[in-house]
Amino acid sequence: MTPMVTRRRMLGSAGAAAAAMLAPRVARATDRKPNLLYILADDHAGYVLGAQGNRRAYTPNLDRLASEGTRFARNYCNSPVCTASRQSFLTSQLPHSSGVTLLGTPLAEDKPTLARQLAASGYEPAVFGKMHFNTPGRPGLHGFVTVETEDMVARDWGAAAGPPRQFNGIRTKPKWRPFEVPASIWLDSDTLPEGYKYENMESTWVMHKAVNYMREHKDEPFALWVSFREPHSPFNFPIEDRNDFNPAEFPVPEVGPEDAEQIPLVFRGLTPEQKQGIIAAYYTSVRYLDRNVGAVLAALRALGLENDTLVIYMADHGYSLGQHGRFEKHVCYDPALRVPLIMRWPGHIRAGGVVEDFTESVDVPPTLLEMLGAEPFQLNQGQSLAGYLRTGKVAEPRQSIFSEYLENEEACIRTDRWKFIYCSGKRFRLDGYMTGNLPRQTIQLFDLQKDPGEFMNVADQHPEAVQQFSKQMLEIFRATHPQASEEPSGETMNALLDWYLRPRDAHLWGMPYAFFPKS
After folding, report:
1. Per-residue H/E/C for 129-143
2. Residue range 40-68: average pLDDT?
3. What is the maximum span of the chain, computed from C-alpha positions, in angstroms?
4. Which of 62, 275, 387, 400 is the most interior residue, by most CB within 10 Å?
5. Which of 406, 438, 441 has its CA nearest to residue 422?
6. CATH 3.40.50.40 fits 32-390, yes or no
């Protein structure tokens, strides 16, 4: 937090001289089409951010970005899984509408995307890093002209960096083998670094590719995505960062009285010390992420493009670090859903703004298109946040958010007071986070004013609220689902929710729909 305070004091003391220096640059930004720098993280939880008030998180570059732009403090993803979430805010469609609800589903080649909309407005979009397209990278993919997605990065970085190294007996991470070895190993409970120094890390390589691209295109407007793997498990960070955090200083979140049966089997053997090590590894990975974000922003500044560029930082979804006994996403509890979202464009976006209204990740595409003067999507299921960026308010703030995780056939609605989660119980989840219990329908309602940790299900005490939220969820599906016209007639509300919650994309990649057996 200190760097933000220092910067404010520095700018405040500069007075009129600083204003005179900045004025020509802000004016110059109106003389050319603005750049877009879209920075993405993977699994970065909204609560692990210094600007959000987390004193343990070391994120000075993201904190400064927030102080120079507008931060959305209550932004929620539309699905707590990588692929579905990412394609929702690339298409401006909720996952069930985009056709991507499961981890391995590729986005259809003919889907409208943010990159295609920008290309139609004269940009040549470029992407470096992890995008979860589930399709081999190639020029032109989903509207991106320059493409170096994760498969290409792994090939090119791997050839440049070579295999991990040994550093005088320092223990380093083993090969990542989730679910094949105990969770304590693939979640890095020993807080082990990668076998590389900072300059040889994969995400550092991605950072340099992005910086070189900006340097080569500094005289023409660009739309650049740079997408980092961190802090996704196994929470990568370089050798130099291995002692940045002391695991013993991290408290282990308490498990609620109703959590026992829903804790995935893979986490049940973790000791308190292992949980602390996992949390420390995650925080170290966030620090490494922040360093690479800072390097990209420093290069933008050095190139004289800071005032010509709309910068956005966000993650695909959040992450649970022991809350409810879980160390992953794939669930509708708040830690897995709340996502960092920061936007900056000097002279166009309020500096130091903090938005406390609800926003959703699907709101990002219409916002960027409006701010950049591009044509909107014909089908748009988000709402523009441009009013927040310019004046701090919009005409009709969201009163709730919606998110869905169709691998488990569940969805949720959150308001200021309530969290409503509905699960059909008709699908055997195949994501590795089984609990040992047979699937069953569950309806959860949490009174967040009394129970912010989402521990006590009060659905039975508030049937009227359950009915209201069930109806609201059904209305969302009816308004946005591409198969809404095929809705069966004469069914109960719960049966209709079950029908909408069934993933339709399973057949695309060999994952069959598994109903709970009747016998």
Report:
1. ECCCCCCCCCCCHHH
2. 98
3. 79
4. 62
5. 441
6. no
Give me the helices (H) in 121-192, please.
150-161, 183-186
SS3 label, residue 277: helix
Nearest by Cα to 222 from 144, 294, 129: 144
Backbone φ and ψ of 410, nearest 5°: -135, 155
Question: Who's near 313: CB < 8 A, 6+ residues apart?
Answer: 39, 40, 41, 62, 65, 293, 340, 341, 342, 343
The rounded percent of the chain whose pLDDT value lies above 70 is 91
Q: What is the pLDDT of residues 240-295, one digit of tens each?
A: 999 999 999 999 999 999 999 999 999 999 999 999 999 999 999 999 999 999 99
* Fold of the CATH domain 401-509: Arylsulfatase, C-terminal domain (3.30.1120)
The alpha carbon of residue 279 and the mean position of all alpha carbons in its chain are separated, in whole angstroms, by 18
What residues does each domain of the chain span?
32-390, 401-509
Structure tokens at 246: 């002391």
Report the C-alpha gap between 411 and 405 in whole angstroms: 6
To 10 degrees, what angle do helices 82-91 and 364-372 make? 30
**32-390 and 401-509: identical CATH topology:** no
